[in-house]
TrEMBL record:
Family annotation (InterPro entries): DNA-bd_dom_put_sf, MerR-type_HTH_dom, MerR_fam, Redox-sen_tscrpt-act_SoxR, Tscrpt_reg_MerR_DNA-bd
GO function terms (MF aspect): 2 iron, 2 sulfur cluster binding; DNA binding; DNA-binding transcription factor activity; metal ion binding
GO BP terms, alphabetized: response to oxidative stress
PROSITE patterns: HTH_MERR_1, HTH_MERR_2
UniProt entry tagged with the keyword Cell membrane: no
Region Disordered, annotated ranges: 134-191
Organism for this UniProt entry: Thermasporomyces composti
Start and end residues of each HTH merR-type domain: 10-78
Keywords attached to this entry: 2Fe-2S, DNA-binding, Iron, Iron-sulfur, Metal-binding, Transcription, Transcription regulation
Record protein name field: MerR family redox-sensitive transcriptional activator SoxR
Keyword Amino-acid biosynthesis (UniProt): no
A Pfam family matched in the record: MerR-DNA-bind
SUPFAM superfamilies named among the record's database cross-references: Putative DNA-binding domain (SSF46955)
Length: 191
């Protein structure tokens, strides 16, 4: 019968790849980019401290949500060198990224909830574009999908004379999911 597993302080590149689920070639790339570090044995083999698993996990998760490796490198540079990062070190990293991650979450939720509606891109192909972006008025604000880029979920208000009125501030409160909007009408989203 085997006793308790002994945790190795260092992992070979193959062990790091197996445990992290990342290809050896990707680990070598991360190392060339300065995202992870290793030491070399007398036989010139790489050995990674076990805490590199957490760095690789952060890299994978960040890549999955579209965070560029350059941004990952900046945040990883805040970690101490030569020792295993503590929970406080990781909390500092989380705090540094919190605002950016919250903003990404808001943008993803807005994309999920609003992309099946007029986004203010100028195509005027969705039936609601005539209400939300009559005559492509949003194009005056700049290029691209203005209703998604400027963070607004409400279209410009148009008066009877055709002039654009001031946009009301978004109402605080939870966002409704796209499925709940589909069950009812979207009339409450348009003036």
């Amino acid at each position: 019968m085997g006793g308790p597993a002994v945790e190795k302080a260092e992992l070979s590149v193959g062990e790091l790849a197996a445990r992290s689920g990342v290809a050896v070639s990707a680990l070598h790339f991360y190392e060339r980019q300065g995202l992870i570090t290793s030491r070399r044995t007398s036989g010139n083999q790489r050995r990674y401290r076990r805490d590199m698993l957490r760095r690789v996990a952060l890299i994978r998760i960040a890549q999955r949500v579209g965070i560029p490796l350059a941004d990952v490198a900046k945040v990883l540079s805040l970690l101490p060198e030569g020792r295993t990062p503590s929970r406080q070190d990781w909390q500092r990293i989380a705090a540094a990224w919190r605002d950016e991650l919250d903003q990404r979450i808001r943008h993803l939720q807005q994309l999920r909830d609003d992309f099946d509606d007029c986004v203010g891109c100028g195509c005027l192909s969705i039936d609601r574009c005539a209400l939300a972006n009559p005559g492509d008025r949003l194009g005056r604000q700049g290029p691209g999908p203005r209703r998604l880029l400027d963070g607004s979920t409400s279209p410009p208000r148009v008066t009877c004379g055709g002039e654009e009125a001031e946009r009301e501030s978004p109402r605080p409160g939870p966002s409704r999911s796209s499925s709940s909007r589909r069950r009812g009408t979207r009339a409450d989203r348009y003036p």
